[in-house]
Amino acid sequence: MPTFQTVRGMRDLLPEEAETLNYVIAKARETAQLYGYREIITPVVEPYELLSAKAGEEIRQRMFTFKDLGNRTVALRPEFTSSIARLATTALKNEPKPLRTFSVGSVYRYDEPQRGRYREFWQSDFEVIGSNKPEADAEIVLLTNGLMKAAGLRNYVFKIGHIGVIRGILSQENVDEKVQNAILQRMDKKEYDEAFSLIESEKCRTTLKGLVKLRSIKAFETAEKMKTHVKGFDDAEAAADNLLEIMKFVTESGCPIETVEPGFGRGLEYYTGMIFEAYIPELDMALGGGGRYDRLVEVFGGEPTPATGVAHGLDRIALAMEMQKTTLSTQPQKRVLIIPVKEELRAEALKISQTLREAGIPVEFEVMGRKMAKALEDADRRQVDYVVIVGEKELRQSAVVLRNLAKREQTVVSISNLAEKIRS
Fold it and tell me: What value, to the nearest 5°, has the Cα angle with vertex 194 and ends 82 and 54?
């Protein structure tokens, strides 16, 4: 018989890993509730045309695409935003604005597998649709800050930029949108020579080269320099002003912005304004990121609608927690195992199990038919807290034996008081 392995880039999450991921998902849901975002569940499979429309060339090349039985080209979602924009033009188009949506689930990209980068990974996605105000952009940065804090991460920082500054320069110099996208893709990878070689205008090249070199230890200082550098490019100057306003909102609410990166691109074509990413020092990849996309809903046939959003890499947040040795701040549940002394007592023991579960106590039942000594030995090995031993003598008194494995103590407890005794 062959030994089967997971498909390359996919992975199994064993109990402890699943527990951590579910913990992060729970924190993302709590964050959604705190900020007034309502959950939406979208399909894993969507039309290729939808997902590829403004995804960017790099992501288009890495999508899992295939023909369905109706010979339609479909793909596994590489992110959530396109699906939410589709809904904004259909089922949600008449909803009052702003529309705040939250989604969580697996997404798929054909990346080269490595630690923190998988072909199937988990994201939480937050979108604000209908607002063009800087407060909306600040909100998605602040809720990301809230999620990082809720996950127990330390020393995380934000990198921020503004696509509108770069696009403002390129548009004023009449650079075609497809060429703009190609330039931004290369700038995102820091392939600046290749990016600038696509620009014919000497003035445009010089302005962008100077912009990329603007750096300061202080984030606000860099943003101010950006504004001064692009004077004469009206849209770019307005974008720099917008960035400064967003940064003011964010920092005054206690969110750490470490760097402003003037040449920051991100990999998606649909961004039109502020963009950002979150990092920890121990991991050289973003834990989450997003930005403003004011034209995507329109691309999918809707009315012109401003929007902004963020996606968080939940696997990466879980990895960051592991690297920082973050403890899950959950109350550990006591583990209880029920063992009937004889086969004839199994039905009564199962009934007691069910009573405890209905009282909210997790219970395992001895289903292997082991003798008492072996069953206790196995419970000890698996770090069970309490064993409930169901015997004939005790049952006649409506009682059981409760054994505390850590203390090596046991006592007879009435069945009616059993749940309370375990809790205490």
Answer: 10
